[in-house]
């Protein structure tokens, strides 16, 4: 039986960096955000539908995420319509990933909105990446196209870091060195790599 580890955390906490560390250890990783980028990229499967709902947000290069973000991040109804287009397609890709890795002892699902949109009940264990709020802020504000207002809007859409930590099976610290974070990832890999017995089996 494959154990499913859900990896989540708030904006800029280091999910993508930590997901890459799990992949480096040979663990299959499903990256929900990468799937969204594929669906929204050049010739992406959802570009036409997004253009129909949000005219002027796409081009031959796919979705212009900066423009789309301006339309949806302050408008709950619009964001809900975008999520209704995207989340079912991501769920399908995730199911295909799980079917393709049935034989692995454990896999990682990198799901940014695990707590906010549901999904915690589809994983066996949860790892939350977490850094102090001031470190998170500096990291996020250094990103191109980011500003204090956009950051505040995104934070308001996400469960506070302290609540995520309280609900986690593992907290992966990302406020210190990359080496420390890698150590924490290796420890989780060692803990979870033990093959699980099927319920009721005696071997
Ligand atoms: C709103 C969009 C266009 C903004 O794109 P942009 O490149 O500017 O930002 P990016 O994707 O890196 O997101 C920045 C932060 O916002 C968070 N975020 C994105 N969408 C949402 C959402 N629906 N609710 C809460 N937080 C969100 C991300 O987890 C991340 O922490 C894009 O995130 C999007 O299409 N979102 C809808 C799909 C979705 O829910 N994706 C996240 C889970 S897979
Ligand atoms: N110990 C650490 N662990 C993880 N990331 C770190 C650490 N130290 C510094 N960083 C840096 O912090 C940044 C974290 O960004 P990353 O894209 O991984 O976050 P994210 O949680 O995936 O963001 P988002 O939710 O916005 O997609 C990277 O630039 C990374 O190099």
Automatic annotation (TrEMBL):
Record EC number: 2.7.1.24
Tagged with keyword Kinase: yes
GO biological process, one term: coenzyme A biosynthetic process
Keywords: ATP-binding, Coenzyme A biosynthesis, Cytoplasm, Kinase, Nucleotide-binding, Transferase
Cellular compartment(s): Cytoplasm
SUPFAM superfamilies (UniProt xref): P-loop containing nucleoside triphosphate hydrolases
Pathway(s) served: Cofactor biosynthesis; coenzyme A biosynthesis; CoA from (R)-pantothenate: step 5/5
InterPro entries named in the record: Depp_CoAkinase, P-loop_NTPase
Catalytic activity as recorded in UniProt: 3'-dephospho-CoA + ATP = ADP + CoA + H(+)
A Pfam match: CoaE
GO molecular function, a single term: dephospho-CoA kinase activity
Annotated ATP binding sites: 12-17
Enzyme class: transferase
Record has Phosphoprotein as a keyword: no
Primary localization class, coarse: cytoplasm
CC terms in the record's Gene Ontology section: cytoplasm
Listed PANTHER family: BIFUNCTIONAL COENZYME A SYNTHASE-RELATED, DEPHOSPHO-COA KINASE-RELATED
Function, in words: Catalyzes the phosphorylation of the 3'-hydroxyl group of dephosphocoenzyme A to form coenzyme A.
HAMAP family: Dephospho_CoA_kinase
UniProt record similarity statement: Belongs to the CoaE family.
Protein name per Swiss-Prot or TrEMBL: Dephospho-CoA kinase
Phylogenetic classification of the source organism: Bacteria, Pseudomonadati, Pseudomonadota, Alphaproteobacteria, Sphingomonadales
């Amino acid at each position: 039986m494959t154990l499913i580890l859900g990896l989540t955390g708030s904006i800029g906490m280091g999910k993508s960096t930590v997901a890459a560390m799990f992949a480096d250890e040979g663990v299959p990783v499903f990256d929900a955000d990468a799937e969204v980028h594929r669906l929204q990229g050049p010739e992406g499967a959802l570009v036409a539908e997004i253009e129909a709902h949000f005219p002027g947000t796409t081009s031959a290069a796919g979705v212009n995420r900066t423009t789309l973000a301006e339309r949806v991040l302050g408008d709950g109804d619009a964001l809900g319509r975008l999520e209704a287009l995207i989340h079912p397609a991501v769920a399908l890709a995730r199911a295909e990933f799980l079917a393709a890795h049935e034989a692995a002892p454990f896999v990682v699902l990198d799901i940014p909105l695990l707590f906010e949109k549901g999904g915690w009940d589809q994983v066996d264990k949860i790892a939350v990446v977490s850094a102090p709020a001031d470190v998170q802020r500096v990291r996020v504000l250094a990103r191109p196209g980011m500003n204090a207002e956009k950051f505040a809007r995104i934070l308001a859409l996400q469960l506070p870091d302290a609540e995520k930590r309280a609900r986690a099976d593992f907290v992966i610290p990302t406020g210190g060195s990359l080496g420390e974070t890698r150590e924490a990832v290796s420890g989780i890999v060692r803990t979870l790599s033990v093959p699980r017995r099927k319920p009721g089996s005696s071997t």
